[in-house]
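Our preliminary data section would be incomplete without showing what the modeling component actually yields. Below, a chain of 494 amino acids is followed by its predicted structure, encoded as tokens that our downstream tools consume directly.
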Amino acid sequence: MDFEKIIRDLIAHEHEEEWFEFKTNWYEPKEIGEYISAMSNSAALLGKSDAYFVWGIENNTHRIVGTEFDYHRDVKNEPLQHYLARQIKPDNGFSFHELTMDGERLVILVIPAAKNVPTAFDRERFIRIGSSKANLMDYPEREAQLFSVLTHGLPKIVNTKSEYQDLTFNKLFVYYEAKGAPISKRTFKRNLGLLTEDGSYNIMAQLLSDDSHIPIRFSLFNGKTKASTMYSVREFGNTCLLYSLDGVLNYGDILNIPQADERNRVVERKEVMLFNKDAYHEAVINVFVHNRWIDGNAPMFTGYQDRIEILSMGELPPDQNLEDFYAGISRPVNKKLADVFLQLHISERSGRGIPKIVSAYGRDHIHLNQDNICVEIPYDRLVISDALVNVPVDVQVESAENRGTESTGALADKRNAPVDVPVNAPVDELAEKEKIVLEFCKEPKGIWEIADELGYKDKRTVRKILSPLLMHGRIAMTTPDKPNSSKQKYITIR
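Predicted structure:
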């Protein structure tokens, strides 16, 4: 083992996790034994091959300070390693190792994950709950999960039965057809991995069915935290996951308004997008591929005044370390789902996603937490507004169904458009202007035509009027897949 590489990867984590622990000179033989039990069981529960206990690193700062811990000392005339091994059942082959890093002496205890049965110390079984050590019997749900993992392996979307068995897949067929890759209605369940061993629909099937039974929401806040006023909530879930993905991607493109950069202008003005489109797309696709769908938890998408946060439930795959993650070495949490995305050319599985995000915004905008991963997409604002509500936040998004049945540029079927739930939407203030727009746009009109009708000379003012109308579904874009097109027109929904 490359212990230095392992330790540097552990230090890079923002917080201690249930499969590793840092200490300086701490020495409590009985508790060391309990930690071996707890961390061995936690490693198995998390799919890790090993857990690690490291002396010589400060717990809070993760700073390398060195240690005087001596794992050769005796416990009541018995060598520490013998004392521990005698009481660890079954024997899991733990081992101590010593090394020097940054001129400081470190000791690392390698603890193999439990196999077949939980690891016990002194006839008691322990588990990690966050950064704390606890008796496994006090957490019956964790105990049941551990026994299930040791018996059947880690739960995955392909081996876990869905609670919904009355599933249909009409939207999935339409999506594949629209992508030019039709699938057989006779063999698709097996080919796509939608069945458990006993022939039941699994979580994978649930996700790709006409109704995933999982809400996926994009919330907008009029401020920089969730303590501020919520402006709107857009629902993209409860449908085939491929359509949910398209909806979130397209909605981000709508929010990503071009800004006129008048700085250092000579002849032509320069347009700067609100945020990096490639980084946003990669973050969203990664979230859909790697989210821990097995628990029924959806990813979260939140827009603030200064950024978008994209949060994926779950951690890194068990066999992936941080350096590999940032380097773009892909190890999908949901491999079968990743295969579908690859087949449909949604993703390339080239490993460019995370490097693109890091290149655009740096590692500081990717937060690896104990039970989730959060990517921040900051705004590059040229003109700071008081609220995100000045952004046109909603349009009828063209779905893959419509792409397969209607010509390019046709209006999306309003019945199939995701539902928007407005909160405190500012629609009364400009009511008269809105009435003019609604009457004028009975036939499709471009933004400059609308500006002329209203007597305005800039698009920004027009967008303030269009925004609530779009949000309420009273008007729609004629080419929603290209929201920033110079040929974009708006039409009243009758």
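Residues 383-430 have pLDDT under 50 and may be disordered. Residues 77 and 479 are 80 Å apart (CA to CA). Preliminary results of this kind motivate Aim 1 of the renewal.
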